Automatic annotation (TrEMBL):
This is PD-(D/E)XK endonuclease-like domain-containing protein. It comes from Syntrophobacter fumaroxidans (strain DSM 10017 / MPOB). It holds the Pfam family PDDEXK_1. Residues 3-88 form the PD-(D/E)XK endonuclease-like domain. InterPro entries: PDDEXK_AddAB-type.
């Protein structure tokens, strides 16, 4: 192993068995928490936005929304997404688009 991330170290200190199962044995996760999917998709969309802006390409809000949605569905294909009580996929996608709209403007 070349390096340890802070999340790897935190997991080890929380539960060394979980660390072993995830990082040593490489067992796949059965699901992703909706909050992680949400954060990752927003981050990906903002990163894409800035890369295109820096390259001098015009970015529309609609395209930014579609990048967010595509990343969300890409993560959904990889594994099941589990939502907290009261959350739905539609509500999280709508919230993400609202946040990206505020960021864009």
């Amino acid at each position: 192993m070349d390096h340890l991330s802070s999340s790897q170290m935190n997991l080890y200190f929380q539960c060394s068995l979980k660390y072993k199962l995830q990082y040593v044995d490489g067992l796949p996760k059965l699901f992703k928490a909706s909050g992680l999917v949400f954060g990752s998709a927003v981050h990906f969309a903002i990163s894409w936005f800035h890369k295109n802006q820096m390259a001098g390409r015009q970015v529309t809000l609609e395209k930014l929304h579609s990048i967010f949605t595509a990343d969300w569905y890409g993560q959904k294909v990889e594994s099941e997404i589990r939502y907290r009580e009261g959350e739905t996929e539609a509500s999280q996608i709508l919230l993400g688009k609202e946040i990206l709209s505020l960021y864009y403007h």
